[in-house]
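Justification of resources, computational component.

The compute hours requested in this renewal are based largely on the per-chain cost of generating structure records like the one below. Each record pairs the submitted sequence with a full structure-token output. That output is archived, and it is also reused by downstream analysis tasks.
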Amino acid sequence: MISDNISINSAGHLCFAGHDTVELARKYGTPLYLIDEQRIRERCRIYAEAMKNAFGGDSHPLFASKALSFKRIYEIINEEGIGTDIVSPGELYTAVLAGFPMEKAYFHGNNKTDEDIAFAIDSKIGYFVCDNIEELKAINAEAGNRGIRQNILLRITPGIDPHTLEKISTGKVDSKFGAAIETGQAEEITAAALALPNIRLRGFHCHIGSQIFEFEPFCDAARTMLSFIADIKAKHGYEAKELNLGGGMAVRYKAEHPTISYADNIAQIGILIDSLCAELGINKPTILMEPGRSIVGDAGMTLYTAGTLKEIKGFKTYVSIDGGMCDNPRYALYGSPYTVMLANRANDEADCVCTVAGRCCESGDLIQENVALPRPKRGDIVAVLTTGAYNYSMSSNYNRLPRPALVMLDGDRDYVAVRRETYADIVRNDV
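The structure output for this chain reads:
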């Protein structure tokens, strides 16, 4: 199995976090999101311990909640003692409602509105990660109206190619995010931040992309950012107190994907940072990182019920499920790979090559192509593995389909964290 929280029981049923997925499908219906709570806690602790060992001081992880955002997840990461990054007022509202301490929250995004900024400040947000000079001025104005100095980091574009999918690469110069070092914009926005009376510049942030298997791109980012910090110190007399290296470490979606030791990667980055700081003559800043996918990716699984089996002789065999791009748009967007199994016949021979298709009225509504499965039958339970990241958080009501329930698995316990939407929920805002 691609993850150690997945197994097959004596009935030939797929199990997740020790629970029979067929029984869960019968109990809660499908489509159904499953989340392994203990896997999330385990990953939070791995990151927290590894960062403390590698970076020392107050260094700590921030959960990138765009990967998976609902009330219970903010409660869990707060219980684990780590921070969070948020990217919208909706995520902020959810975190506040969950009782998450706002001093440990960082507000990202390339286009925060005046209303977003005011809401965040009034919610006592710890930090803004500021993307551009216009936003910087807006934060300064709102902070001034309230008689405070607002902590910020500046998002810097380091010009790193992380060798991942183009649409999830964010660290190159040509990006909608951040101020590029190469163009001089990064120094310009730094000088502007230092001159504003209601801004307290704490340091810098970068994010190079997502689903990155190698650790070298993170080392390249650290090297570039520390050199930038040293340059700013020499030119402006300001030395950054914090450096946020973003997230992006990969998870296994397929058996052929390598296993990553997040702790080992972080340790190697830590060795490099110590060496570079000594070489550049700067104090080591507090190091932050923003894991999202690598905390929740393999903590998730989605269950569907198979419906139509359509064979086109000489072409493809389609098996259609009762969900699709409305609950997982990633294949339609990126061609993202997934492992697919029949949960109720997990030991049967995979002798049928299928394309797993969703029920939405789009030809591109596919979950995965060329998947080897036991020949599917109507009523089979189809399991898609490693769906904890960017599935529920990217779901929609396309075709007016209700979003699935989200069920947490915690030891012997299973419980609903997000209830299944009803048709009444879908029309609730219609007038």
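The longest strand covers residues 300-311. The chain has twelve helices and 21 strands.
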